[in-house]
Amino acid sequence: MTSFSISEEFLRRIFFISKEGLVRSLDIVLDFKATNKTLILWPFIAQTVDNCYLADNHSKILLVSNDTWKVAVVMSQNLTRGNRYESGFITVDHCIFDSLDKQLKYVISNQSVPFHEVFARTIDRN
Question: Would you say the pTM of this structure is higher than 0.90?
Answer without folding.
Answer: no
